[in-house]
Amino acid sequence: MLLATAGIVPLLVYGVVSIYSLRQGTTQSVVTGNVNVAKRAAEQIQLYIDTNIKILQALAGDLENTNLESWQQERILRNYLLEFPEFSEITLFDATGAPVASSRVGRPQLRAEQVGDPVRENVTLSPIAVDDDLLPTGVIGIRLSHLNEATGWLQAQLRLEEMWRMVDRIRVGEHGFALIVAKEGQLIAHGDPNQKPRVARGDNLQDHPLVQRLQQNPKADSDSEEFTPAETGDDMLAAGAPIRSLGWTVIVEQPASEAYAVADQLVRQLLFFIGLALLATVLVGYWWGRQFIRPIFALMRGTQAVAEGRLDERVNIKTEDEFQQLGDAFNGMADKLVELQEDVKRKERQAIFGRIAVGLVHDLSHPIQNIGNSCRLLMKVWDDLEYRDTFKRTVEREFATVKRVLEDLRHLARPLPLERFPIDVNRSVLDVVESMRSQADTSGLTLYSKTTTEKLFMEGDLFALGRVYRNLITNAIQATSPGGVVTVTTARVDDLAQITVSDTGCGIAADRLAAIFDDFVTTKRRGLGLGLAISKKIVEQLGGTIAVASELNKGTTFTMKFPTVEPQAEGRDIDDQMPAATHAA
Questions:
Q1: Which of 43, 141, 313, 528 might form a disulfide with 359, Cβ 3.0–4.6 angstroms?
Q2: Of 91, 237, 108, which is closest to residue 154 (Cα–Cα)?
Q3: What is the pLDDT of residues 423-480, one digit of tens each?
Q4: Phi, psi (deg, nearest 5) at residue 516
Q5: Helices marked H in 414-523
Q6: Are 188 and 128 in contact (CB under 8 A)?
Q7: Which of 84, 54, 55, 59 is nearest to 74 (CA)?
């Protein structure tokens, strides 16, 4: 992924920048082109109006201060009308507004009051209207300063049909047209044949965004805007240019989809090639990356196998590079680990066997020696009946010790089979304490029992549980100096039966507490260190827990907790379980 990212990210950045730059550049180019078209159209229309104004100004010069008769003036007007067909009527008015001469035969249709807004000095232009032929027309007025010693007006009705033809010839793309908006917002020309009825209706475009901005900013010579007209609902790109002297606005509108068609096509092509390049980069990067990291995966699998203990796992890397060297080093390490594991197992077996042997020698030598001494003494006083009883007790006691050591070794490998019955916890503790009180007295200790007053039952094996009690009490007696106290208590804690064995002995060092339940671990000078390990296994088999707390020179406390149960039947007690328990033992 890192390698692919390193190759893809620059390409993506390049693609995004390229697409953005292409879009911006193409948009700017299209907008600039349409703005130039609008500006050129505005210049042509301005030139068209200016040319007709100059014609009238030349006519006014011919009529001004010439003292011609009316019939002479009418002839001049008619000659101009024949020479310049853009004018449909030219009429001369005196200062009172009365017609003096007209190119029209009969009563002139122009009126003196038709003087429009000034477009330059002594020149006016009336609002554009539609004549009977549905063509746009306007009235140009030229003020005469001296005419028969009085001022007057020369007015001409100008046909704007040629302006319509100019607008019709302006095309941008397939569906881009030009339109002209008068000062008051009136639509006076439109290049789209489907939109010409709007001219006849006199639609007002005062709310067009370009018309508003260009009229509000007298210094702007052009502007552009993207908008969505309500009539069509399609996005349009509009460019406009003002005709300041007339107050008109020339707008060129083109569908945005057509205006940006080239840009969109280039973007699509660029996206296609970028996508193709990305795909090729990903595929090549994936293939090469897999080739690159396959040795790493092999090493990971080998390392995981070794961590799980499968030391026979090996890696096969043939890349002729550092990875192969690393794989060979890993295989060598695995071989060395196998050798070390075998050596550790061998030494561990030797250590365990040595500890067992030492423990057996230590634990069995004393009872065997006692039996041997008793046998030799019996040979001398075999006829002493009192000594025979002593000999019998000694042999039975020492053989019980030997049997216990052998049972510890046997139960270490195979847990005791347990039978589960409801057990009266208080009574089970009292029976064991009572049986071991003589051992405590012999050691010069005091063995107390403190049981709860409420009925406390658990499900378990009486013999196995008694074995745990005896192990803990025996350890407490052995760890306590004469004059000390060993206390066994029972209590109910929530829904658990709690049995505590505490002493006032020497205690256990904190660094050894965590390991006292392990096999062959002991804090005493004699013994195999199996008693607590077997006790923990029995407690856990019964669904309980055992914990220890100790402080040097102050004593040790073992706490066992078992789930409580209700007795199965009234009157059934521990005595009912003895045969089964003895059989289980």
A1: 528
A2: 91
A3: 999 999 998 888 788 778 888 899 989 998 888 999 988 877 887 888 899 888 988 9
A4: -70, -20
A5: 425-442, 462-479, 510-513
A6: yes
A7: 59
pLDDT-derived band at 355, boundaries 50, 70, 90:
low
* pLDDT tens, position by position, 97-142: 888 888 888 888 888 776 677 878 888 888 888 777 777 888 888 8
What is the rounded distance in angstroms from the CA atom of residue 485 to the CA atom of residue 556?
A: 11
Q: Is 496 exposed, middle or buried (0-12, 13-18, 19+ CB in 10 A)?
A: middle
Say how far apart CA 414 and CA 92 lie, in whole Å.
137
- CATH of region 416-584, choose from 4.10.520.10, 3.30.450.20, 3.30.565.10, 3.40.50.300: 3.30.565.10
The H or E element spanning position 46 is helix 2-63
**pLDDT tens per residue across span 315-340:** 888 777 887 888 888 888 888 888 88
By the 8 A CB rule, do 178 and 195 touch?
Answer: no
Would you say 144 and 154 are in contact if contact means Cβ atoms under 8 Å apart?
Answer: yes
Distance CA 113, CA 136 (A): 20
Query: If we measure between CA atoms, which residue out of 228, 183, 235 comes closest to residue 205?
Result: 183
Tens of pLDDT along 473-518?
988 898 898 999 999 999 999 889 999 999 998 888 887 787 787 7
Nearest by Cα to 358 from 367, 369, 350: 350
**Does domain 2-155 bear CATH number 3.30.450.20?**
yes
Q: Quick check: pTM over 0.85?
A: no
In this structure, are residues 151 and 144 in contact, taking their beta carbons and an 8 Å threshold?
A: yes
Q: How far apart are CA 501 and CA 487, in angstroms?
A: 6
Q: Domain 164-257 classified CATH 3.40.50.720?
A: no
Q: How far apart are CA 270 and CA 20, in angstroms?
A: 11
Task: Give the number of C-alpha atoms closer than 13 A to the C-alpha of residue 209, restricted to the C-beta side.
Answer: 14
- Residues 305, 308, 310: CA angle, nearest 5 degrees: 55
